[in-house]
From TrEMBL:
Intracellular or extracellular location(s): Cell membrane
Designated name of the protein: Lipopolysaccharide export system permease LptF/LptG
Keyword set includes 4Fe-4S: no
Principal location class: membrane
Length: 363
């Protein structure tokens, strides 16, 4: 590898890894509340560490492009400030050869970001979810809490938790019974986990069913029970939802393509194609942001051009705005995919044109 490449890449990746580390630290702070909720489930120390590590790939697909932007800006600004760009051009190197190592590193980071977005992040998401469900299996009270990471659909729960997550008082559970389209109400004075069994006291159950008469009222059924006992693992498995396994966020590229082929003739909107386009857009953003940072960092005058700064900020804002709008365009798959992919082409063309002008001495 040429000396110039080693010099530029070393300085580029020093800042890059520093920025990624900073984003990971911020991520752990922002997700500390969710990690704290998992800790309250009295999970083992190993599971808590694994759950924390599984949070990191969530932010990496976004952290990598932003780190590329910051790294390329700082590197080119330093080279311009110390007149190293001028020295390299005086020995016969074109601007294209000078920025080639930086752009090549941006392209390699596209491959890394694609691997994280398509493979690593979905796997870590599913493993973190599985850790939660493993905890729920042995302690169903964990999922009944209001601040539980897993939200139960078609169910209202109110309780007062005491003694960590092993005991609760004044428990009220309202469930939407899909079989008869009626509500069922459970009331427990006390609900506690004892020796892997869930024990309840002072239980009341209220439900209703159709009278089968056109003008008749529903029949009301009320049942009271002094004490009940059930295996915690049985109730925990009953409360789990398996449909999350087929959600797009938990599927790798191969599984997304397999699901897309199964739903190809259905009337379901092409959410899978939009999800693939979204991940491609996030992955390619590493190169796009590197190109923007390269243009912004280059200086051929003594003072930083405000016009250049506004131009770079506009390009980044344009990409982020299109990405956010595309997430709300699921009914129109073609429009959503266009908003995700076309901005990259426009930004690359605009940045390349600006770099050509800089190489001619026009800023």
């Amino acid at each position: 590898m040429p000396i110039l490449w080693r010099y530029l890449l070393r300085n580029y990746f020093q800042v890059f890894f520093l920025c990624v580390s900073a984003f990971i630290s911020v991520l752990l702070v922002l997700r500390f509340q969710e990690i704290a909720r998992f800790i309250t489930s009295e999970a083992s120390f190993t599971k808590i560490i694994l759950f924390s590590l599984y949070q990191i790939p969530y932010i990496l697909p976004i952290a990598i492009p932003i780190s590329c932007l910051i790294s390329s800006i700082l590197l080119l600004q330093r080279l311009s400030y110390h007149q190293e760009i001028t020295a390299l051009r005086m020995v016969g190197l074109s601007l294209q050869k000078i920025v080639s190592p930086i752009l090549a590193s941006g392209f390699l980071l596209v491959l890394l970001n694609a691997m994280i977005a398509f493979e690593l992040a979905p796997i870590c998401r599913s493993k973190a979810r599985m850790l939660i469900y493993e905890t729920v299996t042995f302690n169903p009270l964990f999922i009944l809490q209001k601040e539980s990471p897993v939200k139960l659909k078609n169910m209202y729960i109110d309780l007062q938790v005491s003694k960590g997550a092993t005991s609760a008082e004044d428990v009220i559970i309202a469930i939407n019974n899909s079989s008869n389209k009626r509500l069922s109400l459970f009331s427990f004075r006390n609900l506690s986990l004892v020796n892997e069994e869930l024990e309840g006291s002072a239980i009341s159950y209220i439900s209703s069913f159709d009278s089968k008469q056109e003008q008749g009222f529903d029949h009301l059924m009320i049942e009271n029970q002094d004490h009940m006992k059930i295996k915690a693992i049985q109730l925990g498995q009953f409360m789990q939802h398996t449909n999350w396994l087929s959600h797009h966020d938990y599927l790798t590229l191969r599984m997304l393509l397999a699901k897309e082929s199964l739903e190809a003739h259905s009337k379901i909107p092409k959410k899978i194609l939009i999800e693939i386009a979204k991940r491609i857009s996030i992955a390619f953003a590493a190169f796009t942001f590197t190109l923007i940072g390269t243009y912004l960092g280059l200086q051929i005058g003594r003072n930083q051009s405000k016009k250049k700064i506004l131009w770079a900020i506009s390009l980044v804002a344009f990409f982020m705005l299109c990405f956010i709008i595309a997430k709300s365009m699921y009914p129109n798959a073609l429009l959503a995919i266009s908003l995700l992919l076309i901005p990259h082409l426009l930004i690359v063309c605009a940045s390349y044109r600006q770099l050509k002008l800089v190489s001619k001495g026009i800023e």
